[in-house]
Amino acid sequence: MKTTTAQRRGVRRGTRVLALGVTAAIALLALPVLGAAPAAAALPSCTTTDRGAIPAAGRDNHQCVLGSGNQGVAVKALQKSLRDCNKQSIGVDGSYGPKTRQAVINVQRKAGLAQDGVYGPRTARAMLWSSGQSCRTYLSML
Length: 142
What we know:
The structure is a single chain. Strand 1 and strand 2 form a beta hairpin. The strands form two sheets. The protein has a two-stranded antiparallel sheet. It has a two-stranded antiparallel ribbon with strand order 3-4. It is elongated. The longest helix has 32 residues. It is mainly alpha-helical. It has five helices and four strands. The termini are far apart.
């Protein structure tokens, strides 16, 4: 049985449509996986402080994150501001544990942010920061 030119074109067109459909399906299935990682995952951990109070990855680099398990001076600075300026009942021990995580969630909730318990740039901007004897906004600290 011979195939006509029209039949061959139809098969090729159908193959292209099928390939496009499969590619689109794969892309759509990948979206939840790609979207599952928070944007903060690409940011470095805060390892120091800047301006004596704000957790930082380096001088003038506040684009960093802190979360459960982190320890050090950056966590201490965060805890001090959470306690002294954001009315959170937590200790200042330099260890980002469950109480620090919950305090960050409380600040995020009050600010209308996603409540993941991870400190990052958005949470920093929503907080008040301990500066000497007063509490100041993030922008006024810069």
